[in-house]
Specification:
By secondary structure, the chain is mainly beta. It is 10% helix and 57% strand. The chain is built from four helices and 24 strands. β18 and β19 (285-303) form a beta hairpin. The longest helix has 22 residues, at 16-37. The radius of gyration is 41 Å and the shape is rod-shaped. The N and C termini lie far apart (142 Å).
């Protein structure tokens, strides 16, 4: 039997053209069914971005120098971290680093962002690895802002330093870490102390502090009275105790009072060196002026040959009573002299140029 006969029929039964039409229709039906029944590509997962504060802790200076805004890290194909803000503060001999980072990741079934497989929970530790450094930090805050909450906070600091450091601390000094200004010295006052090589400084400074959970911190230290902060300048390091936070940083209203001072059992030559008219100055300001000096022999108790007890003058020791006009400050907690509380029984030190005296306060005039 011929495959196609003279009448164009396939195997003598089906017209070839009809068969081709049937096959074409069948192919179209099969292709359509395959298109309808085959699953299309899955929709791309939704993504979102949030911002977190990372406390990296103390870091060596060479690593701090490498950290910059814009640095990125991708722990997996679905997550990206980008540094948006950097805050540095001194802490000991190192630098404390606080970062604000943008976290981009997929949304889970609860429409919550996941980063590297988990939500950005408080306390979670995140790694940052770039071509230049590798660090990690704990999440301290999560929010919508790309910048850290920082404040320029003025404080009054007190510190006892050596004479060389006292001379080096100057108004206008900037405290810089890795090229970033973190504090500025606004005003400095230096006073003598009982030690000839030691000075007391009162320093007004502005700190770039970081607000974390409504608490202001500088170098991990809460910015409040009684706390100590470190300011490492290029020529010195100043550790100062916070005496006042905010306000006008006034040392109090200036007032001059006549104060009676007393020194007991000092050598006669030392007593004779103290004279009325001697002054102590800080810059162009006179902070103390001696107005009168009364010297009398110190008393000693002796026993006579007959057993009698006698009170006699000491041959070389003298008791000295001094009246001095002191520049004091009236503060809410009382009168202060050189930043220290002044009250009966307290001790003051006066650097009178040729002699430094340390005397006890007997009384303070009105």
């Amino acid at each position: 039997m011929e495959l196609i006969d003279d009448e164009g029929r396939l195997f003598g039964a089906v017209n070839v053209i009809d068969a081709l039409v049937v096959l074409l229709i069948a192919a179209v039906v099969v292709a359509g069914a395959a298109f309808v029944l085959t699953d299309g590509p899955a929709p791309a997962p939704e993504t979102d971005t949030t911002y977190a504060t990372l406390d990296v802790g103390t870091v060596s200076p060479y690593i701090v120098d490498a950290i910059e805004e814009g640095d990125t890290h991708s722990p997996d194909s679905a997550s990206t971290l980008r540094v948006t803000d950097v805050h540095l503060t001194p802490q000991g001999n190192q630098t404390r680093v606080i970062l604000r980072v943008a976290l981009e990741g997929e949304l889970n079934s609860q429409d919550s962002l996941t980063y590297a497989g988990a939500p950005p929970r408080l306390g979670r530790t995140l790694d940052i690895t770039t071509d230049r450094y590798q660090i990690n930090g704990q999440i301290r805050d999560v929010g919508d802002n790309d910048a850290l909450a920082t404040t320029q906070q003025r404080v009054l600091l007190s510190s006892h330093v050596d004479a060389g450091t006292a001379a080096a601390v100057t108004s206008g000094d900037e405290i810089r870490l890795s090229g970033r200004t973190v504090a500025r010295i606004e005003n400095v006052t230096s006073y003598a102390t009982g030690e000839p090589t030691t000075r007391q400084l009162l320093v007004a400074a502005t700190l770039t502090a970081h607000r974390q959970q409504d608490r202001l911190r500088f170098g991990g230290t809460p910015v409040r009275r009684g706390q100590t902060v470190t300011l490492p300048a290029s020529e010195y390091t100043l550790d100062g105790q916070i005496e006042q936070v905010g306000g006008e940083l006034s040392l109090g209203t200036a007032t001059t009072r006549t104060v009676t001072l007393r020194m007991d059992e000092v050598r006669e030559d030392f007593a004779d060196a103290i004279e009325p008219g001697m002054v102590e100055r800080t810059g162009d300001t006179t902070v103390a002026r001696i107005t009168s000096v009364k010297t009398e022999p110190s008393l000693i108790i002796t026993t006579g040959e007959n057993g009698s007890v006698n009170v006699v003058d000491h041959p070389i020791n003298r008791d000295v009573t001094i009246a001095a006009d002191l520049q004091l400050r009236e503060t809410p907690s009382g009168l202060t002299f050189k930043g220290e509380q002044l009250r009966q029984g307290s001790t003051v030190t006066l650097d009178l140029g040729t002699v430094v005296i340390e005397a006890t306060v007997v009384s303070v005039g009105g």
